[in-house]
Each structure stands twice: as structure tokens, then as C-alpha cells.
């Protein structure tokens, strides 16, 4: 089973590799929590700090690591756009006009997004029932 320490390491790695231009201006923690079917993760404020939350079912090794990586990258895009982060807010709404997808494409996640879409359609519904 993956743990929160695993998530912290992935967060540092993805931030360093794919978001080197995004300054880290506060404490950013990351944990597994919740078992929503339609939500892989979210980002929230905790006072002055930020917390990224990933679906608890992703602790299982059956879930490919790229799903976790992509979810972390998705939340980092929100951080970069100023949602639940001290950075200036670039847009009015976090998912306005496909901005997250576009930003992820720009940062090199185009192929992974396609894989995720496919995985979501073919594997996740079944896996969800097995894992929950
Ligand atoms: Zn989002």
C-alpha cells in the first residue's frame, strides 16, 4: 500500500520536474483521503497553507502510478493559477474553458491525459467496486 510519505515524494518530484517555474510560497502538504467515485483529488486551503488530497483508493498498487502523478499535476495547475495558493489568481474559475487540460498539455502531460481518460472509462468503474 502506498502511504502519505510516498505522496510527498511524488509531489516534490513532479513539482521539480514539471513545474520548476512555479514558486512554492507556503507549506504544501498532501494526503490520501476520501473514496469518491467521480473525484480523483482536490486542493484546499488550510489557513495560510495548502493541502492536496488524493483519493484514498489510489493507495492500492492496482492503480497505475501515472494516475497519481497526473492527479498531483492537476492540483499543481490549480496552485499555479492561484487557487488555494498565495500566487495571484489568473482566472475566475478553476476549470474555466479547459484551462487545466491546456496547461497540462503544455507541460508535457498530453499522452498521460489520454491514457487516464481511457483508464477511467475501461478500468476505474470496475476497480472502484473492488477497492472500496
Ligand atoms: Zn481540478
Protein described:
Helix 1 crosses helix 2 (65-80) and helix 2 packs across helix 3 (99-106). The protein has helices at 4-18, 65-80, 99-106, 110-131, and strands at 28-32, 41-46, 49-54. The protein is globular and about 40 Å long. The chain contains four helices and three strands; from the N terminus they run H-E-E-E-H-H-H. The chain starts with a helix and ends with a helix. It has a single domain (4-131), classed as Zincin-like (2-Layer Sandwich). Strands 1-3-2 form a three-stranded mixed sheet. The mean pLDDT is 97. The longest helix has 22 residues, at 110-131. Helix content is 46%, strand content 13%. The structure holds zinc ion. Zinc ion (ZN) is lined by residues 74, 78, 94-95, 100.
Brief overview:
With 132 residues, the chain is an alpha+beta fold. 46% of the residues lie in helices and 13% in strands. The structure holds zinc ion.
Amino acid at each position: 500500500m502506498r502511504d502519505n510519505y510516498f505522496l510527498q515524494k511524488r509531489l516534490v518530484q513532479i513539482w521539480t520536474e514539471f513545474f520548476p517555474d512555479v514558486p512554492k510560497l507556503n507549506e504544501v502538504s498532501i494526503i490520501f483521503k476520501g473514496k469518491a467515485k467521480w473525484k480523483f483529488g482536490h486542493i484546499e486551503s488550510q489557513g495560510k497553507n495548502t493541502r492536496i488530497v488524493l483519493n484514498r483508493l489510489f493507495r492500492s498498487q492496482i492503480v497505475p502510478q501515472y494516475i497519481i502523478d497526473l492527479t498531483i499535476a492537476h492540483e499543481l495547475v490549480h496552485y499555479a493559477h492561484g487557487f488555494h495558493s498565495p500566487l495571484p489568481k489568473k482566472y475566475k474559475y478553476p476549470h474555466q474553458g479547459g484551462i487545466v487540460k491546456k496547461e497540462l498539455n503544455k507541460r508535457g502531460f498530453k499522452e498521460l491525459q489520454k491514457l487516464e481518460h481511457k483508464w477511467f472509462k475501461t478500468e476505474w468503474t470496475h476497480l472502484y467496486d473492488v477497492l472500496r
